[in-house]
């Protein structure tokens, strides 16, 4: 019983807040390109803690523009190659300070952040030569406070990190469409 109380006490700050993602593109309204290209991509790392890397992989795997898409560990000099780089945008100094105070009081004090997020860079290569770079930035909004535990269900209604990364990858595929034709 004592161990359960400790686990609940330690995990409480992790579930007493709301997180959403904003300012990412909505590629769902555009026409899908015609499949016709085989491509490879390199993506090292796993951005974020909530599935951003899976969103990128899913978008590339399900992309209608490619008849074959393969993840590789090293750059490829033949055909279409996409190099994906993710940069983490850190929260502001005040947000870090309030976050520290909030978590040290087990979220009795509120903390929030609106400036952290990600910058996703796509470098598109064809036959070993860089064709173009595409840059997308989106932000995460988070609010943590003990009374928010009552509203944790709202997280299920807001965009997730995985869906934000997937939307960014889909927007890249639309923007890069003219460069991806066979």
Report what the structure shows.
It is a single chain. The protein is α/β, with parallel strands linked by helices. 30% of the residues lie in helices and 32% in strands. It contains five helices and seven strands; from the N terminus they run H-E-E-H-E-E-H-E-E-E-H-H. Strands 1, 2, 3, 4, 5, 6 and 7 form a seven-stranded mixed β-sheet that branches. Strand 6 and strand 7 form a beta hairpin.
Please state the average pLDDT score.
82
Helix content: 25-40%
Major sheet, described briefly?
A: 7 strands, mixed
Total number of helices: 5
- Overall shape: elongated
Low-confidence stretches: 4-14
Tell me the span between the first and last alpha carbons: 64 Å
Tell me the β content: 25-35%
Describe, in short, the structure shown.
With 182 residues, the chain is α/β, with parallel strands linked by helices.
What are the salient characteristics of this protein?
182 residues; alpha/beta; seven-stranded mixed beta sheet; 5 helices; 7 strands; 32% strand
